Amino acid sequence: METMIMRIMEVQTPAGTLLLGGCGEELCLCEWAESPHADATVARVGRRLGAQVVFAPSRVCGIAAEQLAEYFAGTRKSFDLPLLMAGTDFQKAVWTELLHIPYGTTITYGQEAQRLGRPAATRAVASANGANPLCVIVPCHRVVGAGGTLTGYSAGLSFKRYLLDLEGAGKS
Question: Could you count the other beta carbons within 10 Å of the beta carbon of residue 23?
Answer without folding.
Answer: 21
